[in-house]
Amino acid sequence: MKGIVFNLLEEVVIRHQGEDAWDALLEGAGLDGAYTSLGSYPDEHMYRLVGAASEALGMPPFDVLRWFGREAMPSLALRYPAYFSTHDSTRSFVLSVNSIIHPEVRKIYPGADVPTFGFRDEPDGSLHMTYRSPRRLCALAQGFIEGAAIHFNETLDFEHLDCMHRGDPECRCRITFHDKRPS
Ligand code: HEM
């Protein structure tokens, strides 16, 4: 996993819980925390950090990753405004992940391992999304999408219909977008 993801986690933890909390997480996970954005590090480091945060906060690992994803979106929007400014809705932003954002990410961060999503419009207006990745970070994907909705001043419902963590071959999710919140 690319160092940028660890940098984002550090930023989010420090913003919400302070420097000491990040140091405590590193200690709990037995890691030194020297992550450069372009470097590649074992996925295991991320799982250990999430595990340490899960214990410290008394939150299931799924919720830790989801929280991280949601809170990381403002930092991603600041670092990569171009991926956001060409969209006026969460739906179109999310639909650009496979075709534009992650292919660009692989150019900026050689060796980046990104997941594969599948999208299908449903007759009721919702978006059916599949997620497949050996890293099984569907909770992070959910958090990113919920964070994107906050960015676009929208609300959405995210349902996990199937999950790799329950033994399914891929995750299947239903995303129902609601109208923009009045600003
Ligand atoms: C709603 C939008 C997005 C979704 C759902 C999404 C989802 C994910 C997920 C779940 C991963 C973890 C790897 C895996 O599951 O195999 C990931 C990795 C990554 N994503 Fe995205 N992403 C989104 C937008 C972005 C944006 C805007 C950026 C900005 C550049 C970005 C950059 C990255 C990077 C750098 C990685 C790490 C690759 C690696 O560690 O090798 N993503 N993404």
Keyphrases for this structure?
single chain, alpha+beta, H-NOX domain, 2 domains, four-stranded antiparallel sheet, 17% strand, binds protoporphyrin IX containing FE
Task: Walk me through what this model shows.
This protein has two domains: 3-66, no CATH class; 69-180, H-NOX domain, CATH 3.90.1520. The model has no long low-confidence stretch (mean pLDDT 96). It has a four-stranded antiparallel beta sheet, covered by helices on one side. It is 54% helix and 17% strand. By secondary structure, the protein is an alpha+beta fold. It has helices spanning 3-17, 19-29, 43-57, 61-79, 81-85, 90-108, 138-151; strands spanning 116-121, 127-132, 154-162, 171-180. The chain is built from seven helices and four strands. Protoporphyrin IX containing FE binds next to helix 1, helix 6 and helix 7.
Concise description?
The protein has 183 residues and is α+β, with helices and mostly antiparallel strands.
SSE layout and pairing:
Blueprint (H helix, E strand, L loop, with lengths): L2 H15 L1 H11 L13 H15 L3 H19 L1 H5 L4 H19 L7 E6 L5 E6 L5 H14 L2 E9 L8 E10 L3
Antiparallel strand pairs: 1-2, 2-4, 3-4
Helix pairs in contact: 1-2, 1-4, 2-3, 3-4, 4-7
Bound molecules: protoporphyrin IX containing FE.
